[in-house]
Amino acid sequence: MGWLSHLLGDRVPADFEGTLDDGEHVVGSAPVEGGGYLLVTQLGLWVPADGGPRRVGWHLVGKAAWSAGVFTLTESEEAAVAGKAVLLADKSPVRFKLARPGKVPFLVRQRVDGSVRERHRKDLGTGGAWFVERKVPGRDGTVLQVRPDPGTDLDLIKAIAEEAAEKLAKPRG
After folding, report:
1. Judging by DSSP bridges, how do beta strands 44-47 and 85-90 pair with one another?
2. What tens digit of pLDDT does each residue of 31-52 get?
């Protein structure tokens, strides 16, 4: 890698089939065994998928793990809205085998951690939930995301989430 590439980040692989947004820059990439790439940009993680590569925004990376040559991604989806809060549900984990991961696992960890502004665990008698205030790539401000434990009373979580989001929206003094 030349010094300019080192300073500016990796280039988009020549055979990458996705289309980056204007101003979106690749800062790290790794070829996936079986085809495609994991690409790290300021807006999210590009992953191979049926129909072509797609980007998962940093605010929707529920969990990312790196072990024994395998990168495991658990993506979250926005399952419901409670006022200005968003309730998340995790999709099934997807595994990508990387023979040459380079700095991708480190960059993913750095960006996911960087998207989190605050986190709080609320335990209830029938379960609980994580309340996480996160930065959404490409937008100003933050969003309150709530990930309830399986079996937790969703109506109760929605009420708590709505109230918490309202308090966060008010100026702190």
Report:
1. unpaired
2. 999 999 999 999 999 999 999 9
- Amino acid, single-letter form, for residue 10: D
Q: How large is the greatest C-alpha to C-alpha distance in the chain, in angstroms? A: 57
Compute the distance between CA of residue 69 and CA of residue 120 in angstroms, rounded to an integer: 32
**pLDDT tens-digit profile of 131-171?**
999 999 888 889 999 999 999 999 999 999 999 999 887 76
What's the CA gap between 94 and 5, in Å, rounded? 30
Sign of the dihedral through C-alpha 95, 139, 144, 109:
positive
